[in-house]
Amino acid sequence: MSVPIVLIVAVADNGVIGRDNTLIWRLRSDLQRFKALTLGKPMVMGRKTFQSIGKPLPGRETIVVTRDASFRPEGVFTAPSLEEALALAQSRAAALGADAVPVVGGGEIYRQAMPLAERIYLTRVHCQPDGDTYFPDPDPAAFVADLPEAHPAGEHDQFAFTFVDYTRRPATKGHG
Ligand SMILES: NC(=O)c1ccc[n+]([C@@H]2O[C@H](COP(=O)([O-])OP(=O)(O)OC[C@H]3O[C@@H](n4cnc5c(N)ncnc54)[C@H](OP(=O)(O)O)[C@@H]3O)[C@@H](O)[C@H]2O)c1
Fold it and tell me: Is the CB of 10 under 6 A from ligand 1?
């Protein structure tokens, strides 16, 4: 029995998720949610996202997808394909007793992992920034949205935001 793959993403109202390999906003409330959703779990991310974070995050394992066999940063696993990263994540999830494999970006990795995801934890960030990396709206034929949870910007949040979680519809794996 495999552990479900979940995407965790913060997306502007216009679909932008990044620019110049950086995050565009400061949202402490979303970072707290990200932490709660990933602690104790093996996270899968693309090489560019790992470089934009710059280090392994404490309390979770990091699996970096890269075709560059010489890319071997300390404190993370690397995998030469998404398939191998997800296979490693499954075995690490079993070892850790984790109930999900979070896929945390960026754009290239989300695109490839979306058809495999059981859930999407999406934070809609209410702004319209310029950017170069995008996340598409989940396909309503493949995913059903929970009730959105709207939040005004907190003291340490640059923008208001809404949490919208999506669950895959039965028998649609491979779509979306
Ligand atoms: N808003 C959010 O929630 C969020 C979350 C994460 C990231 N981001 C943003 O997203 C942007 C980065 O996204 P991105 O699309 O440019 O890059 P990315 O998905 O983070 O990484 C792309 C890299 O991953 C590796 N890769 C991708 N597919 C692969 C495969 N099938 N097999 C082997 N390696 C593979 C390649 O690394 P090599 O070139 O080393 O082979 C590729 O260059 C940044 O701006 C970041 O801030 C936003």
Answer: yes
Which tokens in the block code for residue 161? 């935001």
CATH of the domain at 55: 3.40.430.10
Q: What is the mean pLDDT of residues 143-149?
A: 97
Question: Could you tell me if 122 and 15 are in contact, meaning their C-beta atoms sit under 8 angstroms apart?
Answer: no
Pocket test for ligand 1, best of 66, 120, 164 (most atoms within 8 A of CB): 66
Q: Residue 166 has what pLDDT? A: 98
pLDDT tens profile 87-114 = 999 999 999 999 999 999 999 999 999 9
Question: pLDDT tens-digit profile of 36-46?
Answer: 999 999 999 99
Does residue 174 sit within a domain?
no
Q: How far is the CA of 52 from the centre of ligand 1 (A)?
A: 10
- Is 176 a domain residue? no
- Measured by CA distance, the residue closest to atom 34 of ligand 1 is 66
What is the domain count for the chain?
1
